[in-house]
Amino acid sequence: MRPRIIINAAMSVDGKIALRGGKRIKISDEEDFRRVHELRNSVDAILVGINTVILDNPKLLVKERYVKSPRNPVRVVLDSHLRIPEDARVLDGNAPTIIITTEDARERKLNAEIIKCGKGRVDLKCAMEKLYSLGIRSVLVEGGGTVIYSFLKEKLVDEISVFVGSIIIGGDAPTLAEGLGASSEDELIHLKLLEARALGSGVLLRYGVVYD
Fold it and tell me: Can you tell me whether residue 82 is helix, strand or coil?
């Protein structure tokens, strides 16, 4: 058994989620931020990869500005080699944090629960089963692009919500789904459009993921 998994992201019209080199850029507007925080507040856990923690140092909390009496879900970080900085804001104690690493990662004492799944690279299916065993029934995956594609490739995603901001970044900036990508039509990931609507200065797209 695994939790229900929702991917949420904001991207430019040309599919970029950050500037060249991975530098963060504000794509969402206030209306989308409200949607995101309401979505965060509705799930049991919020998940990101270690590169997002290192580059952006997010808190992964629900802001009272958008949600009254936020419940602050569990924060989950995928960190195969346990590289997380000790001053990372997800370790601040303001919400429970779980770090999922591998069996060969070095031992560290951190202000978080540490779960080991796989060798060399986190085994996502194992990780989701472990989260489910802890009572986590829904997970919001917020990035980055490599993590998002890994979940899709492992056929673990139920829904995708993407806010498309009215900007173009261009070039080789990070995209919504990084990694090697499909080399044949058989490897394509098919989606079913659930919703498309104007939201603030952009467009919100919601998809279900279709697996054979």
Answer: coil
pLDDT in tens, 117-161: 999 999 999 999 999 999 999 999 998 999 999 999 999 999 999
Computed from CA positions of residues 164, 168, 172, 173, in that sequence, does the dihedral angle turn out positive or negative? negative
DSSP string, 112-123: SEEEE-SSSS--
pLDDT tens readout for residues 54-69: 999 999 999 999 999 9
CB 178 within 8 A of CB 144: yes
**What's domain 5-210's architecture?**
3-Layer(aba) Sandwich (3.40)
Contact between residue 15 and residue 9 where contact means Cβ atoms under 8 Å apart: no
Q: Is the entire prediction scored with pTM above 0.85? A: yes
- Say if residues 5 and 139 touch (Cβ distance below 8 Å): yes
Distance of alpha carbon 47 from alpha carbon 175, whole angstroms: 18
Contacting residues for 91 by C-beta, under 8 A, at least 6 apart: 84, 97, 110, 111, 112
Alpha helices for the chain (secondary structure H): 30-42, 50-56, 124-133, 145-153
**CA dihedral sign, ordered 171, 174, 180, 181:** negative
Q: Where are the domains of the chain?
A: 5-210
What separation in angstroms does the CA of 197 have from each of 113, 179, 203?
39, 29, 6
| 159-164 and 202-210 beta bridge pairing | antiparallel
Query: Contact 129/35 with Cβ under 8 angstroms?
Result: no
Q: What are phi and psi of 153, to 5 degrees?
A: -65, -35
